[in-house]
């Protein structure tokens, strides 16, 4: 690794300056759906491993194009492969979509709070994902599956747009085949012939097999979906203190200095993105906070 | 702490000593019909004999009836432009056949031949408090801003206590002035007593004491100190505006839907002037720019404002799309959420946002309207 | 019949009904089963019953001229299928199909709505319960309409 040509002049004190990206090389690009893809990255230089907590995010820099926050979607027990899944919707993600194996992406991170899965030990765990929101939850799912014996029932409720938009299809199938995981997928619209569920993800909550008085729920998706999900979980008997959500706001620095991601008194980049629902629920219903 | 005397004609000696100690001295000067801050090398460059008139949306310089050096109030610029520059290159990347190489620009800055350490000459109490507030923003962690730290560490501060209150000042009510209480190396109190024109010098730090020793200043008498107090009380008395802070945080949090926001938004041009002139506003964005050949890409940090639409943009649109939401964000941040974030208000009562608002929106009036539940 | 009564008692939909009303409803109930692919209700046809799904899965569909049949929603165990029997002109607005082998309890809506006309107390109780179901479906539909996972949330 020391002879890597990308690192000839790489003598930067990254600990001292959190504003500098570290070079990572693309190992693999995988198309997930029509507009989503997963990149697997490997650190260059003397950074051999990249540890992170499920729910944390990185800032990804494409040379000369820009930098954006993307949550980590890989397996936390494999710190040698950094995995990000995203939708190609903006300038940077579209540029990233064109990148191939061997290309360099700058990484700053990992940043932010994580899903408190340790705290959920001994309880049922309910994951509720909406759309691309499954990606930030996947590391937590890996973690829970890896230590399956520590948890009660483990349920994933996943809602997305159409059957063609279902992310991580193979993995979901594998998990569904296990007897100790309950996986339910629903879509907003489907043509006749689709054997799965149609309807919003909140419809799955009343029937899902978990004990609401002994459950921690991790929710990630569009803000409206998270609001209604939390409401439905609460109706079922899950306390707001046991519901966690992950928020999205504009982020430029990711280290609490640029002001963009403020949400009332909190900075989503450093106080979040994962929040206890009870902490932010009042602000979520205020317009344009 | 003892006070010292510096005669008006010795002001240059003070500047010379700072120069000798390799400080890059920044002080007030008159330029483009305003008092701004720039590099100075002698006391002659200071705004001697100038004063200003300020009110909502208005700033005018005028000749004073005396030769006072500091008998004016803060202009459009604050010291943040030196500690937190409007444009800052974060890094440079070079692309070559060998790959992409990053160049760390803080290191480059440190290695610059020019003396990097600033001496800020003539920092008012509100300004000093603004610096202390930005210290909390940039240096308290968990992450620190290495660029700010680099410029802030070792900066020498010569404070000046105001001898008059400006037309838009309200520092007294914010507990941020008019007297500089701490955070300075030296503080000057200008006194014109008949023919005698001199400064009573307060010492704030060892570095300040060291400078005073080199100046061989005489000690101030009780009468001098009494003169200073009289001037200060007069300044505080002159202050025409005030912002009532009692229970303010909760009141603002509870009034996010107050009709006043809508009413003010109808006047607000969302021009961002208030955030640009504010000495505590710290928001910034980054731009990634490349040269035409695509061989070099730089990341530039630029001051940003919560008044722009782009500021809160996430995929699908801006979170704060209306002027109402953006004005509310700015004011609520300054006077409520800032307290939760940094343990202090984000407002020092300098009045710049009132003076430089093109439509003359007055933050003290806005707070009053919400507190008194008026629209 | 005892079996049916037990199932109905345990279902939240029937909670809080008087003994008399409950007995009346049980009297209108019968077990039904549909194989996968079977059309349970067809748009435009007379709506004279509603169903309580015991097991299986049902799609509510709408035929569109150029896209074919679109699934509006799926219903499963514990859900109630059908409310057109309660609202004039008592015709089904959508198709409903069994996706897999589906067992349900069918309730005679025609008999019930006649009862409701004479017994307003029962009518109100049933209407309240259906209002709840309709509200939930409306809420879901509104969220679906937002297309929150789409390009422009």
Key structural traits:
heterotrimer, A: alpha/beta, 19% helix, disordered N terminus, B: 375 residues, alpha+beta, four-stranded antiparallel sheet
List the helices and strands and how they pair.
The complex is a heterotrimer of chains A (289), B (375) and C (153).
Chain A (H helix, E strand, L loop, with lengths): L21 E10 L4 E8 L13 E6 L3 E6 L10 E6 L3 H7 L6 E8 L12 E7 L3 H13 L7 E7 L8 H9 L4 E6 L2 E2 L5 E2 L16 E6 L2 H14 L6 E4 L15 E2 L2 E2 H4 L2 E3 H8 L5
Parallel strand pairs in A: 7-8, 7-12, 8-9, 9-11, 12-13
Antiparallel strand pairs in A: 1-2, 1-6, 2-5, 3-4, 3-6, 13-16, 14-15
Chain B lengths: L2 E5 L3 H10 L3 E8 L2 E6 L10 E6 L2 E6 L16 H4 L3 E10 L2 E6 H6 L7 E6 L1 H15 L6 H7 L3 E5 L10 H4 L11 E8 L2 E8 L2 H10 L2 E2 L2 H17 L9 H7 L4 H9 L5 H5 L6 E7 L5 E8 L9 E2 L2 E2 L4 H20 L9 H4 L7 H9 L4
Parallel strand pairs in B: 2-8, 8-9, 9-10
Antiparallel strand pairs in B: 1-11, 1-12, 2-3, 4-5, 6-7, 6-14, 10-11, 13-14, 15-16
Helix pairs in contact in B: 1-7, 9-12, 10-12
Chain C lengths: L1 H9 L8 H9 L1 E6 L4 E3 L7 E7 L1 E8 L3 E9 L3 E2 L13 E4 L3 E7 H10 L1 H27 L7
Antiparallel strand pairs in C: 1-8, 2-7, 3-6, 3-8, 4-5, 4-7
Helix pairs in contact in C: 3-4
In short:
The complex is a heterotrimer of chains A (289), B (375) and C (153). Chain A is 19% helix and 29% strand. Chain A is α/β, with parallel strands linked by helices.
């Amino acid at each position: 690794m020391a002879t890597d040509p990308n690192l000839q002049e790489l003598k930067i004190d990254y600990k001292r300056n959190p504003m500098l990206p570290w070079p990572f090389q693309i190992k693999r690009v995988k198309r997930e759906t029509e507009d989503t893809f997963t990149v697997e990255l490997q650190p260059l230089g003397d950074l051999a491993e990249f540890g992170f907590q499920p729910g944390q995010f990185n800032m990804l820099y494409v040379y000369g194009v820009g930098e954006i926050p993307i949550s980590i979607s890989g397996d936390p027990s494999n710190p040698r492969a950094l995995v990000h899944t995203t939708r190609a919707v903006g300038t940077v993600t579209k540029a990233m979509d064109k990148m191939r194996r061997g290309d360099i992406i700058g990484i700053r991170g990992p940043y932010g709070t994580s899903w408190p899965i340790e705290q959920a030990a001994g309880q049922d765990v309910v994951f509720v994902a909406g759309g691309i929101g499954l990606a930030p939850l996947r590391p937590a799912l890996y973690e829970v599956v890896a230590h399956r014996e520590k948890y009660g029932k483990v349920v994933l409720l996943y809602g997305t747009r159409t059957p063609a938009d279902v992310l991580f299809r193979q993995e979901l199938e594998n998990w569904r085949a296990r007897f100790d995981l309950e996986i339910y997928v629903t879509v907003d619209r489907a043509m006749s012939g689709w054997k799965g569920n149609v309807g919003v993800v909140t419809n799955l909550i009343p029937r899902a097999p978990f004990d609401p008085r002994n459950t921690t729920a991790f929710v990630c998706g569009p803000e409206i979906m998270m609001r209604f999900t939390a409401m439905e979980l609460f109706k079922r008997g899950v306390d707001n203190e046991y519901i966690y959500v992950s928020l999205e706001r504009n982020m430029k620095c990711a280290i609490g200095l640029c002001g963009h991601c403020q949400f009332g008194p909190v900075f989503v980049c450093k106080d979040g993105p994962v929040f206890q629902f009870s902490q932010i629920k009042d602000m979520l219903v205020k317009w344009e906070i | 702490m003892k006070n010292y005397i510096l005669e008006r004609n010795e002001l240059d000696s003070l500047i010379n000593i700072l120069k000798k100690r390799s400080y890059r001295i920044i002080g007030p000067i008159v330029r483009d019909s305003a008092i701004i801050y720039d590099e100075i090398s002698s006391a002659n460059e200071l705004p001697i004999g100038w004063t200003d008139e300020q009110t909502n949306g208005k700033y005018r310089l005028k000749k004073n009836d005396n030769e006072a050096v500091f008998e004016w109030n803060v202009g459009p610029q604050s010291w943040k432009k030196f500690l937190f520059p409007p444009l800052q290159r974060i890094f440079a990347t070079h692309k070559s056949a060998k790959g992409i190489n990053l160049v760390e620009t803080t290191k480059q800055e440190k290695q610059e031949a020019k003396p990097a350490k600033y001496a800020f000459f003539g920092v008012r109490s509100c300004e000093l408090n603004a610096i202390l507030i930005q210290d909390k923003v940039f240096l308290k962690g968990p992450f620190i801003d290495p660029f700010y730290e680099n410029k802030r560490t070792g900066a020498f501060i010569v404070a000046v206590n105001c001898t008059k209150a400006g037309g838009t000042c309200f520092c007294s009510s914010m507990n941020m002035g008019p007297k500089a209480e701490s955070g300075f190396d030296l503080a000057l109190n200008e006194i014109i007593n008949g023919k005698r024109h001199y400064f009573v010098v307060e010492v704030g730090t060892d570095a300040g004491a060291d400078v005073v020793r080199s100046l061989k200043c005489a000690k101030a008498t009780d009468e001098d100190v009494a003169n200073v107090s009289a001037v200060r009380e007069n300044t505080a008395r002159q202050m025409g505006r005030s912002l009532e802070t009692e229970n303010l945080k909760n009141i603002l949090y509870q009034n996010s839907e107050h009709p006043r926001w809508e009413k003010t938004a109808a006047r607000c041009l969302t021009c961002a002037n208030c955030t640009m002139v504010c000495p505590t506003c710290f928001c910034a964005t980054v731009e990634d720019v490349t040269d035409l050949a695509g061989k070099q890409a730089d990341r530039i940090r630029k001051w940003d404002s919560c008044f722009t639409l782009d500021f809160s943009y996430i995929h699908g649109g801006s979170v704060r799309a209306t002027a109402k939401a953006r004005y509310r964000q700015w004011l609520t941040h300054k006077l409520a959420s800032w307290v939760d974030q940094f343990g202090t208000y984000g407002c020092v009562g300098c009045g710049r946002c009132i003076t430089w608002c093109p439509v003359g929106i007055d933050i003290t009036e806005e707070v009053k309207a919400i507190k008194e539940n008026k629209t | 019949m005892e079996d049916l009564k037990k199932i109905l008692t345990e279902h939240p939909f029937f909670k809080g009904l008087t003994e008399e009303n409950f007995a009346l409803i049980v009297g209108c109930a019968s077990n039904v089963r549909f194989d996968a692919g079977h059309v349970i209700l067809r748009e435009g046809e007379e709506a004279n019953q509603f169903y309580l799904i015991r097991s299986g899965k049902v799609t509510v569909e709408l035929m569109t001229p150029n896209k074919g049949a679109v699934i509006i929603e799926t219903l499963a165990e514990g859900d109630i299928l059908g409310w057109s029997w309660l609202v004039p002109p008592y015709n089904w607005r959508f198709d409903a199909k069994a996706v897999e082998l589906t067992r349900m309890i069918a309730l005679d809506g025609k008999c019930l709505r006649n009862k409701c006309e004479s017994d307003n107390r029962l009518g109100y109780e049933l209407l309240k319960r259906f209002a709840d179901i309709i509200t939930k479906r409306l809420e879901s539909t509104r969220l679906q309409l937002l297309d929150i996972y789409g390009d422009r949330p």
